[in-house]
Design a protein that fits this description.
95 residues, mainly alpha, 7 helices, 63% helix, globular
């Protein structure tokens, strides 16, 4: 994990710790996140609750708060946005 990835994870105060690395890799590099994170990013509450373990579900409010306040708006909100974000290579693909 590089400096930028580490910076991102340090800002994820409300995000469950076990999800931070995967979320940072998705945001920075467009890597495919796990099923729970994918459902949250795609704004699919039913799948998020279905796929999440107890710790992930307990951190759902913090995760959504982080996405709303910190993450690029283009990286979440619908399946199309998530797919496009991964195809472009995350923030790395914008440069």
């Amino acid at each position: 994990m590089n400096f930028t990835d580490k910076y991102l994870t340090e800002r994820m105060v409300g995000v469950p710790e076990h999800l931070r690395d995967g979320l940072a890799l998705y945001i920075m590099h467009g890597y495919q996140p796990g099923g729970f994170l994918t459902a949250v990013l795609e704004n699919d509450l039913f799948q998020a609750v279905n796929r999440g373990d107890d710790d992930s579900q307990a951190g759902l409010v913090g995760l959504v708060g982080y996405l709303y306040n910190e993450a690029p708006a283009r990286c979440h909100g619908s399946p199309d946005r998530v797919t496009a974000w991964m195809q472009q290579g995350g923030l790395d693909g914008l440069t």
